[in-house]
Amino acid sequence: MKPNIPSPNKRPAWQRHGQLWRSTTGLCLILLLTAGCKKYNEFRNAKPTSEVSVNTYDFLKSQQGLYDTLLHLIDIAGLADTLKTANVTFFAPQDYSIRTGLYNLNYTRGKYGFAGNWTLDSIPPAVWDTLLRRYMIPAKVTSDSLDYADGVNLTTLSYGYLMNGKTAPTNASGIIAGGPTIIQLSDMNRSRFVRDWSTSITQSIDLKTANGWLHVLESKHVFGFISLVPLAFPYSLNPIQAPYLGLPSPIPGTIEVEDFDDGGEGLSYHDTDNNNNGGQYRTERVDIENCGEGGFNIGWTSGSEWLEYTVEVTVSGDYDLGVRAAANDEPGGDFHVEFDGVNITGTMHCPRTGGWQSYITLSKTVTLTAGKHVMRFVLDTGGYNINKFIFTKL
Prior knowledge:
The protein is an alpha+beta fold. It has helices at 13-17, 24-33, 56-61, 68-76, 80-85, 95-111, 125-132, 228-232; strands at 88-92, 136-137, 152-155, 162-169, 181-187, 198-208, 212-217, 249-251, 253-256, 269-270, 288-290, 296-298, 306-313, 317-326, 333-339, 342-343, 348-350, 360-368, 371-379, 385-393.
C-alpha cells in the first residue's frame, strides 16, 4: 500500500472517469446547481458539475432536505465548523444510511430485551463524533490520488484512525469495467488484512467545494460501517441475525444475492472456505465478485452452502420466482429455496449457459403468505453463479 495521499492529479477526473454524477443523487446535484429539475434523460450527456463556490457544510444544507439527518449529527458532534472552514475531504453518508444504522441498533436492542425506541438524540454525542470523523480526511483526496492496486491508507480527522481508499471501475450494459469509476472507502478495523475490513462505495465523486472535496456514499451503506451498534450498545458484542440493509427485503421485488442477512458464518450463511474469493462488497467469507449485469454476484459455489434473507411478503398468493444464474461448464448445478425451513421450490437446475457471466432466468411458481419470513437459498451442488432473486405477483 502507498502512504498517505500521493502524487497530484494526472489529469482532470472528468476526462478519466466520464460522468461522475450519473446516479440519482449525482444528477440532483447537477440539477440543483444549474436550472432545476427536468427529466433525467435530458441531462445524460451534460458536462458534470465538478466545483461549487460554497463550503462543504453549506452545500449539503442546500440540497433540499437530502442531508438533514446528517447535518443534525454533524451539529450534535460539534463538527459543523470543520466542514465550513477546514481543508477536508468528506465522504458523505446519505440520510437513508443513517436511518438504516439506527434501525439496526433498535433491532439489536430488542433482541437483547431492551426497548427498541432509541432516537438519534439517545446516542451519546461522543459516538457520533467518533464515527463521523472516519468520513473526514484532513487532506485533498480525489479519485486520481487513489488509483493504486492496493489503494491508499488515509488518516482520518483526529484520533489517527486509518481508513483505506481505492478507485474501482463499475460494469455497464453487461460490459465488465465498462462503467464510471467509483471509490471504495474501507474501515480497516485496525487490521492490515483485507478480510477484516468493512467497505462501502461512492455514488458520486470528486466535487470541489470552497474548502475541500466531497464524495457521496451510496444509499446502501450502513452508517458507521460495522461500528455504530457495538459503540452505542456494548451489549451487542455477541452476533445476532438481522437484515443486511436494516429492513426486510420486500416481496414482490428484487433481492440481490449479496444482500444476505448480517450475523456471520453459521447464523446467516454457511460457506465452505474462509475467504471472500471475489474480494468484493462485504467482509464475510461468502464469495462475491463484480457481475456482468451490474452490481455483484456470488460465485465459487459449493454444495451444502446456504444464504439467508429476512423478507416481508406484502400480499399472500402465488408468485413467480425468477433466479438469475449462470454456469460456464456442464453439468451446471442444483439449488432450492426455503421459507421458514420449508422447501417451496423443489430442486431447480442451472444448466451450462456458456459463461460465468452469461445469465439466464430460472423460474418457479411458489405460494407465499403475507408477513415476515426467513428465506434460505440452499446450494445442493456447486458449479454456477447467482446474481439475484425476482419475485413477481401472479
